Amino acid sequence: MFFEFGIKDIIDIVLVALMLYYIYRLMKESRSLNVFIGIMVFVLVWLFVSQVLEMRLLGSIMDKLVSVGVIGLIVLFKEEIRKFLYQLGAHQRVKNIMQFFSSKKSKSPEEDKATIMPIVWACMDMARGKIGALIVIERATPLDDIVQTGELIGANVNKLLIENIFFKNSPLHDGAMVISQKRIKAAGCILPVSHAMDIPKELGLRHRAALGIAQDSDAIAIIVSEETGRISVAIKGQFRLRLSAEELEGILAKEMTG
Ligand SMILES: Nc1ncnc2c1ncn2[C@@H]1O[C@H](COP(=O)(O)OP(=O)(O)OP(=O)(O)O)[C@@H](O)[C@H]1O
């Protein structure tokens, strides 16, 4: 009953272990750890019943359950699967983007500045007036699903327009504004809320929504706090809190122009 055990098998085991570890991490993050443990127990029982005990009837019933169950799991965990695939794609994409930008710098720094400065000035004004705001700047990850939850605008980036949209009684002040390709694409959009446990207690839903989109995509989310007038940025799943105008400008210049 001995079988050959070569380098290919070791790589096979390492890859399966890595895959299981990633699934475990994703499920832990999405607080579905018990589901993961349940699936593992089911798979072990299935293997034991069909491979070791060779019980044909129970084995075939479990075979059927597994094939249907896979579809069920895909539906149940579509968000986690999307996130996993995004993270996988992002690794390669980072390299590609770095290569792309190293040979081809931003076409027009003036054009980038013309987009960045109205955002910075509007945020400073709104911070002074304690007007809450949430601005998401789309980059490589398309945000079409987010845009669909709000109202389409399609206007050039303009300081007064941004302030007007977030003005307290404006019909679009609730939710997030999406800026895409140097234009205000939509406002009043609903973002996914982060369930991270390590967010400072004083930060509420606006900040959680900013972190949520920064975890799910490569977008830059700018938050102006209505309570404190502080400006923060969520990017690559991390917060940069209490920013000055210069710091905000620096981050946007660096991240938007590569
Ligand atoms: N999922 C979401 N998507 C977009 N905007 C959201 C979302 N959740 C909350 N908001 C915005 O955040 C506002 C509520 O902010 P809340 O006071 O809870 O957050 P906060 O982080 O404490 O911010 P602030 O410091 O401005 O009070 C809502 O009125 C809405 O405009």
From TrEMBL:
Enzyme Commission number, as recorded: 2.7.7.85
Report the top EC class in one word.
Answer: transferase
From the Swiss-Prot or TrEMBL record, what is one GO molecular function term? diadenylate cyclase activity
UniProt KW Cell membrane keyword = yes
Q: Name one Pfam family in it.
A: CdaA_N
* Residues passing through the membrane, by range: 6-24, 31-49
Annotated ranges, domain DAC = 78-245
Keyword tags: ATP-binding, Cell membrane, Membrane, Nucleotide-binding, Nucleotidyltransferase, Transferase, Transmembrane, Transmembrane helix
Q: Is the Nucleotide-binding keyword given for this protein?
A: yes
PROSITE patterns referenced in this protein's UniProt entry, alphabetically: DAC (PS51794)
Query: What reaction gets catalysed by this protein?
Result: 2 ATP = 3',3'-c-di-AMP + 2 diphosphate
On subunit structure and binding partners, the annotation says:
Probably a homodimer.
* Similarity comment: family membership: Belongs to the adenylate cyclase family. DacA/CdaA subfamily.
- What is the stated purpose of this protein? Catalyzes the condensation of 2 ATP molecules into cyclic di-AMP (c-di-AMP), a second messenger used to regulate differing processes in different bacteria.
Q: Per its record, how is this protein called by name? A: Diadenylate cyclase
| Organism listed in the record | Hallella faecis
